[in-house]
Amino acid sequence: MTAKQAGFWRRHRVLKWALLVLLLGVGALGIAISVALEKAEPLLRAALIAGLEQRFHTHVELDSFHISLADGFWAEGKGLRIWPPRQSPSATPLGAPLTAASAPLVRLAEFRFHAPLRLKFGRPIRISVVELTGLIVDVPPRTRLAHSAPAPAPAPGAEPRAKPLLQFQVESIRCRNAHLTLQTDKPGKIPLEFAIDRIDLASPDGNGSMRFNARLTNPRPAGVILAEGSIGPWVVDDPGQTPLNGAYRFEHADLSVFKGIAGILQSTGNYAGVLRDLTVDGETVTPDFRLTSFGTAVPLRTAFHAQVDGTNGDTFLQPVRATLGQSHLIAEGKIVRVLPQTAANGFLTPGGHQIALNVTVDNGRIEDFLRLTSRSGTPLLTGALHLKTTLDLPPGTAKVEARLQLKGTFTLDDAQFTNPRIQNQVRQLSLRALGRPQDARQEAAADVRSAMQSDFTMAGAIITLPNLEYTVPGAEIDLKGIYGVQDGGLDFTGAAKMQATVSQIVGGWMGKLLKPADRLFSKDGAGTEIPVHVSGTRKDPSFGVDLGKLGHSVPVLPGEPQ
Questions:
Q1: CA torsion angle 524 527 533 539 (round to 10)
Q2: Looking at residues 380-396, what average pLDDT do you find?
Q3: Number of other residues whose CB lies within 10 A of the CB of residue 446
Q4: Do the beta carbons of residue 406 and residue 390 sit within 8 Å?
Q5: Cα–Cα distances in Å, from 292 out to 19, 49, 68, 369?
Q6: Is the separation of the CB atoms in 504 and 527 below 8 Å?
Q7: Is 232 left (phi over 0), alpha (psi -120 to 50) or beta?
Q8: What is the DSSP letter of 439?
Q9: Can you spell out the DSSP letters for 320-380?
Q10: In terms of CB atoms within 10 Å, which of 94, 293, 397, 561 comes out highest?
């Protein structure tokens, strides 16, 4: 130090000591802040736990909690666990292993938040955003909540829990990579699980509900759900009763995860109610709906009103109005999830979705439905369809047509076969049945429309028609038999009743020779009745007359009463 500098500090000794005291004060303040932070962390951790316990009325644990005053007030916690109400570890004997009944309702890997350094005792700490990472929510079924052990009662004479010294007021929550599991108390039902990519929650309003915006991945069919609305107030004793309402958009749902069908579905709609009982109104569009066994796509649109149990995914359709191609249909019923089960014969029944519906086609076209079962895209026939049926589709690994079970009735009007050879045979049948064999020989004869009606059942990809009536002008054919959906096989027997006599059907000089036989073939008011059969396949059918059965009654199907 130069003489000049030394002289300066001798002349300003007060300033020297002031600077020294200031430096010591700054050091002491740093030590004090460090000590204060070390002391404050347990205090704030306790306040945070107390606030959560007061909110959820249950036990809360937090593994670690740290704070920092670098550029404001920063806090970070890890290992947060919140138990369902009346299921805290205090209800479990010391040393006993944790069971499903005592598992946490909420597990959080990490959270962090920031607040300005304007803390005032008596006022809550305002937090603009709380960031959550690794959130896992496992909502137990209602029965587990109802039968869980009660929370320990306060000791006699114990004072009520004091109001926390510090309180937090959260304005919004930002959550990433969460997982939600909704357990069910229904036997044989699979828990419903969602992978939530993100969810943003706003501060609760005066009623305790929170606005939210979420993006989640639907497990089956795989697709992205974008949802917004409000949830709450949270019902602690039974989360399934928590109110929920809003709107959703379901994008790029790949239906190929369901055995036997394919297509990309889009859906939009609104929902309202409580988590366990939601009313959902929406629409779906699947422009390329198809059966994977055949591959021909037909556009499918639906508008639906449904009751949904959000805790297990069970859906009750009330009703669905659908358009397949140009056909309109209405369906009512249920779609529920079931667990794999072992049947009485020892075989394992696969789990999945059980579909049970009542279906009515009030304004349909048969070609829309037959196109789904056509590999070429060309249906067997066209016509106006009216149908009523029950539909049962159990879960399984087999193709849809092998698992699908139907039972109902149908009528088909104004029908035409798309195969020219078959349609020409129908035309000739009609003209000969009217006693116009000369017109049947003309290639440019008038077009002929036909009609069908029958009861039907379908099981194991086989359609059984026990009382099929096929009519064309001048003729009625009554058949019984089966049709194979997968191979197109035909096996029908029955009787053909025609207006004209045998001689009129044949015509010409041959008809004159057969005139004595008219009485042999005439029966029950019909000019001619002969036993017939239809065999072969959909692509190559074979029609024939059972000459050996003339004079006998119409044969019956195996197993039917004579």
A1: -130
A2: 89
A3: 10
A4: yes
A5: 86, 54, 59, 14
A6: yes
A7: left
A8: H
A9: EEEEETTEEEEEEEEEEEE--EE-TTSPEEPPEEEEEEEEEEEEEEHHHHHHHT-SSS--S
A10: 293
CA 53/CA 59 separation, integer angstroms: 6
Please classify residue 147 by burial: count the beta carbons closer than 10 Å to its beta carbon, then call 0-12 exposed, 13-18 middle and 19+ buried.
exposed
What is the residue type of 314? D
Residue with tokens 């990579």: 177
Q: Taking a C-beta distance cutoff of 8 angstroms, is the pair 284, 314 a contact? A: no
With vertex at residue 472, the alpha carbon angle to CA 520 and CA 463, rounded to the nearest 5 degrees, is 100
Integer CA distances (angstroms), 218 to 89, 130, 215, in order: 33, 26, 10
CA–CA–CA angle 313, 317, 322 (5° rounding): 120
Strand stretches in 83-147, DSSP E: 106-115, 125-127, 130-139
SS3 38: helix
Cα 334 from Cα 323, distance rounded (Å): 19
Tell me if 483 sits within 8 A of 462, measured CB to CB: yes
Q: Looking at the predicted structure, is the pLDDT value of residue 4 above 60?
A: no
